Amino acid sequence: MTSTEVMSRQRPGLALGVLAGALALDVSGLGVLNAALPSVGARFDLEDTALQWVMVAYAVTFAGFLLVGGRLADVLGRRRVFEFGVAVFTGAALVGAVAPDTWVLLGARAVQGIGAALSGPAALALLTEVFPAGPVRNRALSVYAAVGAASFSGGVLLGGVLTQFLGWRSVLWFSVVVGVTVLSATRAGLPGGEGRGGRLDLPGAVSGTISLILLVVGASTGGASAWASFCGAAVFLLLFVAREHRTADPVLPLGLFRVSSVRAASLAAFLQYMGSVGMLFFAPLYLQGMLKYSPFESGLALVPMSAGVFLTANFVTGRLLATYAPRTLMAVGLVLIGGGTALWMSTPHHGSYLLHVLPGLVISGIGQGLNFPSMTSAGLTGVEPERHAVAGAVNVVAQQIGASVGVAVMVLVAATSDDQLTGYHLAYLAAGIACALGAVVVAMTDRRAATA
User: E strands of 106-165, at which residues?
Assistant: First the structure.
């Protein structure tokens, strides 16, 4: 059945709503507890270095299982895996909402990440099934990307509002409600269909996931244990690459990385999430800890970033992509993300929101709005249609590695100073420099798209 035929039998508006809703759950899942971090820390008596694991536990499993999720969607059927992933995410959110201690909360967050990793690649593949190639699909992708780009900062705002008025557990209860709503509309809005057959490369999936986990653990610790984790990550990465070269059904077809646009999009994804998620990790700590904002006020303070992301992605970037190459918009976006993050180096102990906080938020938000749809488009350019799901998963893997490793590294950079605010400033500087260097690399990417 062709995409056009599928679209004629489905309700495309409902389908886009279901898929965008699931994407919003997945992306906001990383940031929705961000504004609640001080409250979570107070409840469980956690320091900043331990608090990062509330975010990282989700990010590392999300990234680690994404390629598995993409492969399972092809083998078992996209809607089936999509539904299962949303159900796992929702069930884990329920467990987190009633968590009696830190370990249960962190475990629930890790399982949420697995659920998001299962539903995410299937959602992108389903979108290409429902909407035929051409202007209709381009518009759907634009809306889908805009929702994804705005969901993290929007999740931070939502988390602040819910934490202020209903407590931090209400943030997870809200995820339960949205997850149930998405599941209830899935059968009516999305096409079914059987999987394409094949098998899951279990050794490759295990070695790749372990490599990522050890990488994040190493970045989050110090001393000899960090080097041991990095060495372990390198060993499992080598095993993963060797396995993917040999197997007939790889989790990750390594030929994808011969496509220059895939490489550029992956770098852009990594750096966007490193800068934006790192910035938003420190935002509630600064706004609530030093400016004495309430959780609601700190969430409200981030609205300009969310608005900038959504408006730019939905109304500007699509038009620019008709004229400029994605790599050009990615490079400009990274410069703006890095510049907006670096601007927060001016934040003093008793700063002004309009003078010290707002400019960086707006500039970073516009940069994210330019970069997110551009990297989504670039990540599929030059890739055969049957590999679009795994190519999309590769891009989201880069996002989540950027989020987890980026936050961990920025926390370590901040810890190098005895003064807390100076440490924050050093972290902002590091992220700004990384984004600027990445923009240069993306801008110099070969214009010719090789074939995978």
Answer: none
291-317: average pLDDT:
83
Burial class (CB in 10 A: 0-12, 13-18, 19+), 77: middle
The answer to whether 37 and 51 have CB atoms below 8 angstroms apart is yes
Question: Which among 315, 442, 318, 449 has a CA at the least distance from the CA of 373?
Answer: 318
- Rounded to 5°, the CA angle 159-163-166 comes to 125
Cβ neighbours of residue 406 closer than 8 Å, sequence gap 6 or more: 270, 273, 274, 275, 277, 278, 431
Please list, in sequence order, all residues whose beta carbon lies within 8 angstroms of the beta carbon of residue 300, skipping any fewer than 6 positions away: 157, 160, 161
pLDDT, tens digit (0-9, with 9 covering 90-100), for 375-400? 877 887 777 766 767 777 788 778 77
Tokens (6 digits) for 392? 């999309």
Query: Are the C-beta atoms of 336 and 360 separated by less than 8 Å?
Result: no
* Nearest to 349, CA basis, from 408, 285, 407: 285
Distances (CA, A) of 74 to 118, 199, 247, 328: 11, 10, 17, 32
Q: What is the DSSP letter of 11?
A: -
Contact 27, 58 (CB under 8 A): no
**57 Rama sector, left if φ>0, alpha if ψ -120 to 50, beta otherwise:** alpha
